[in-house]
Amino acid sequence: MSDHHTYKKVELVGSSRTSIEDAIQNAISECSKSVKNLEWFEVVETRGHIVSAKVAHYQVTVKIGFKIENS
Amino acid sequence: MSDHHTYKKVELVGSSRTSIEDAIQNAISECSKSVKNLEWFEVVETRGHIVSAKVAHYQVTVKIGFKIENS
Amino acid sequence: MSDHHTYKKVELVGSSRTSIEDAIQNAISECSKSVKNLEWFEVVETRGHIVSAKVAHYQVTVKIGFKIENS
Amino acid sequence: MSDHHTYKKVELVGSSRTSIEDAIQNAISECSKSVKNLEWFEVVETRGHIVSAKVAHYQVTVKIGFKIENS
Amino acid sequence: MSDHHTYKKVELVGSSRTSIEDAIQNAISECSKSVKNLEWFEVVETRGHIVSAKVAHYQVTVKIGFKIENS
Amino acid sequence: MSDHHTYKKVELVGSSRTSIEDAIQNAISECSKSVKNLEWFEVVETRGHIVSAKVAHYQVTVKIGFKIENS
Amino acid sequence: MSDHHTYKKVELVGSSRTSIEDAIQNAISECSKSVKNLEWFEVVETRGHIVSAKVAHYQVTVKIGFKIENS
Amino acid sequence: MSDHHTYKKVELVGSSRTSIEDAIQNAISECSKSVKNLEWFEVVETRGHIVSAKVAHYQVTVKIGFKIENS
Amino acid sequence: MSDHHTYKKVELVGSSRTSIEDAIQNAISECSKSVKNLEWFEVVETRGHIVSAKVAHYQVTVKIGFKIENS
Amino acid sequence: MSDHHTYKKVELVGSSRTSIEDAIQNAISECSKSVKNLEWFEVVETRGHIVSAKVAHYQVTVKIGFKIENS
Amino acid sequence: MSDHHTYKKVELVGSSRTSIEDAIQNAISECSKSVKNLEWFEVVETRGHIVSAKVAHYQVTVKIGFKIENS
Amino acid sequence: MSDHHTYKKVELVGSSRTSIEDAIQNAISECSKSVKNLEWFEVVETRGHIVSAKVAHYQVTVKIGFKIENS
Hints:
The structure is a homododecamer.
Chain A: E1 6-16, H1 20-32, E2 38-51, E3 54-67
Antiparallel strand pairs in A: 1-3, 2-3
Protein name (chains A, B, C, D, E, F, G, H, I, J, K, L): Flavin-binding protein dodecin
């Protein structure tokens, strides 16, 4: 058995009408549909769309890290 | 009619006693008093004041982008 | 009496199961147990742990500034 | 007469269907409608939209510097 | 139907003998062979090879963003 | 009465034949001709012109922050 | 035959109990199980875990570049 | 006797009504009240307060390095 | 019992005549003399002294993170 | 024969009235008058002068790498 | 006669016992002994040595730009 | 005799088949063939070539500083 692991990071942009936290969770939820073993995220950028002088969507770019299976 | 647009970005610091999202919205609301067509924001910095060991104000620096009219 | 002050910044990582704001406050609360006169914070990094495709903890690195006493 | 000048920088996003250079020029042309004495630009970011796997618009963020009159 | 979308960014290096714009387009064209719904690109780095004191290839690193289907 | 304020930052380049501090003050003085309530500055870049192997002008880029009136 | 190539970069975190170089190699070895034509790596971040005041694992984030086949 | 030393860096904000250099020195003087063996400083950020369109205080963030005793 | 922890980061410069890894370990060893529960490190900067065209000392700046007790 | 090479990078600013690519080539051409074996370039900064609301010169800072002879 | 010029930047560290401005000037004076046509400088880093809790030397890293003759 | 010195930094890329430390030393050794008084180095970038899924060469970009003679 190996004494070390290798991880991969993917970069996603989650969006949400309600909060930065919700946009992060949406990115993670979407990522989990195709990747297992998600372990951590890092916020890279926070931005969003404005409609009628209101935040319409928070758009949060996150890097999501996961262990490569059998690594 | 032009086939391209030009946008301007202005940099504001919104503040709020309650949340980062509210500080962003406050900057956008203030900006909308003098500028139309706000389209997006980018968070540049998040900081705040502390009073009696509590966050007293979140201060969020945002760049706000809007289309220059008739561009 | 001096006409200037000196401040120190310390770097902490606050965590929270619920929100980025709560993680910031937790870092400040912990810091206030050993340091007085906390005046401001600056968010340096936002990341977190993921468990079962859900954010388990937000981990927010903040620099916290305080006045050095008698400076 | 003063022996020094003061300059201001504004941040614009020029766009173009054809090239990065054209997007820069479009931002400058738009800026010149309301500001005189434009002297230099600095490219801050280059990005763009994609439609049908083709670059539809280059979007180039530039800072444009100009001398403040009578400074 | 969801009221939000999730996007993924991938990082490619396009190259071209002729121009920076052509290198960007080459990266996008290659990316479109395996991914649908490409929406935007961000230039991360511009460099190139020199042969006999001439630019032989522009090499432009771009992040390309696309909507995750059914997100 | 609002319990929060909004601030705007503008970016200027002050110049001076004598010192970095003087260049900063020149930018602030010029800015104060058109804007009230200047509250703080942040140095972004320090550079200058050289003539006959002497610094001819310090050129200091500063962001200047001020409270938006009635915000 | 095309006169240019397109490359992709993926971001991995290799780990090792013994050295930074070994962590880089572990990331590359793992990557090579699913991707061919690996050509270069760029170190993005170096960090690690500490156990009993000893480095337990070096964790090196690398971007790994490879030629897209038939590009 | 060890053939190597370990240093620690602390981050302070010195302020001064007169100059950037004086703000740096004030931070160092304050730091020296509690720490010995100060060896070097690195300027991290220069900013300040404005009162009545004049620089009221320069605020210079410095990292100050010192040798850990007996290291 | 709290469901969250707070961590502190300190910044040290470890040095070594032999390797980057050894410089990191030296910083950690020195840090562990006064702080318990060291958990991770992040390399911030790698530099060194040269004597007679040989590396005399590697100097590696690391941030070391540890859990604040009872947090 | 050595199994490794050493490269040097020099930093130049090429200018051109016509395009970013031409400014890069001009820097390379000038560099090649005094240095052989130029191998690659990296764009560091893109800016330019404006005259009468038109780009008068693109000014592109590039690092140019070349193999040190006999290394 | 060419309608464009090429510039080179060199990186020097000037030092001074008295001020940041003096350290910049010292770097420029030294540079001018071997290079003609110095045109501008850019401050890259400001640091210094401390002796007996006083700034002993300011050390300012500057990039100095000059026109390549006959370019 | 002057009470201050001026230093120059040059940027080299050292390579090695065996380690990051060896690549740094190779850059320094090469640099010392033409320059005296090398005093320090700063690692700017670490990357390398991959052949057959193995690191073929570490390529470490370093800035090397040396005192300008008679400065």
